[in-house]
Amino acid sequence: MSTTPKDHLRDSQRDDAAPPPGLDKRDWIAGLERGVSIIEAFDDANPRLTASQAGQRTNMTRTAARRYLLTLQHMGYVASDGKLFWLTPRVLRLGRSYLESARLPRVVQPFLQRVAAGTNEIAYLSVMDGDEVVYIARNGPNRSMSTGYVLGARVPAQVTASGMLMLALRSDAELGEWLATRQLTVFTSHTIASMERMKLELARIRAQGWALSEQQLDLNSRGIAVPLRDRHGTLVGALNITMPMGHESSEDAVARVLPVLRETAQAMRNLI
């Protein structure tokens, strides 16, 4: 498809658009924002895209999307057969750069090792990114099981102990906005599917200061999480353990794991 004057006009108007709130136009690089949005347009439901489809998913013209895709292809982040485009493993460098340069995952690693040794379970540090939990550090025994997460894994917050905990500890206004504007996705017969029930569960989690989630994402998975705060009391993430269901009751699992998580989170406060 050839480029039309109308396409060029739309692209130039987009380049001249106002920057996001709080950012001076002189400091805003629209092209960088749009290039990242192209990478984020790919997901499990859209692993391969044409330039037109990428443009539709990023609110760009086909011409602009194609230019960004070809640039990313030149940089090695995208591959193509001439029509369809897809991400390459080089994209993983972006996440690896964070894991290798961020201070928090490095600081928490020896503490996760302590949790794993004290419980014989896999321990994680997770943070929130939008509506998802991202696991940025882990330590523990290697198991042939489906309840473990790799570094960088992203999971809907609504079905994980750490995600529900961090949602529950948001301000009243932030939590109210989340409850009013989200739709819950059902993964198993145990997933909380009612917003009213979710509201009650988050209130209970906030009151007790820790979270338990069982079989909401995976029928073989149980998670227990406590908040991780810095020296000023600001929430920076969650420490959690993920374990298989079946070998002990919920009460026994909490009694065994929760004290270790709480003690470790408290010991870290003056270091972050």
Automatic annotation (TrEMBL):
Keyword Transcription tagged: yes
Protein name: Pca operon regulatory protein
Domain HTH iclR-type: 29-96
Region span, Disordered: 1-24
GO molecular function annotation: DNA binding; DNA-binding transcription factor activity
Keyword Lipid metabolism attached: no
Signal peptide, first to last residue: none
Keywords assigned by UniProt, alphabetized: DNA-binding, Transcription, Transcription regulation
GO biological process annotation, one example: negative regulation of DNA-templated transcription
InterPro entries xref list: GAF-like_dom_sf, HTH_MetabolicPath_Reg, Tscrpt_reg_IclR_C, Tscrpt_reg_IclR_N, WH-like_DNA-bd_sf, WH_DNA-bd_sf
Transmembrane segments: none
UniProt domain IclR-ED: residue ranges: 90-272
Record Gene3D superfamilies: 3.30.450.40, Winged helix-like DNA-binding domain superfamily/Winged helix DNA-binding domain
A Pfam family annotated for this UniProt entry: IclR_C
